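Q: How would the structure tokens look for this protein?
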Amino acid sequence: MASRQCGLVVVWRLGVVAAALLLAGCGAGDVASIDSFYGTGTSPGSVFSQSLPGRLVGDIVQNTTTNHILILASGPPAAGETAVVGATVAIAAQKLSTTTAADGTYDIENVAPGNVNVTITLPTALGGSSATFLVNVQPGATVSGIPNTNSL
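A: Here is the predicted structure in token form.
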């Protein structure tokens, strides 16, 4: 009867070094696949199933003629607009928030992908009112402005 060796095979998969155990000769009589060791990459709990976080960026400005508040994708205020300073942009379910800077910009990183409720609260000087918007964040993507203009 031939002697069998126990060992370890290192496999490169999806940019991550993963290991599959060679079980032959170690009592199991078969080779375990990389999928049984780490999952298929699509099953819940798999080390490969986690999505990259997204990001929300934009500018909040006020039209000085109509006094309307605009949530823009990017860029400095245009003629007839002024930056809204100190507005809060928050994703309460993910415990993420920021306030707009002196130029009206905001930037929230590490947003979990999916449909998220984004609440914008104006500073007290502008009435302090809030509106919540449903925004779809794709894995690893940056969402500029609020693409869905319907508040919840």
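The chain has two domains: 1-50, 54-144.

The two ends are 73 Å apart (CA to CA).

Upvote if useful.
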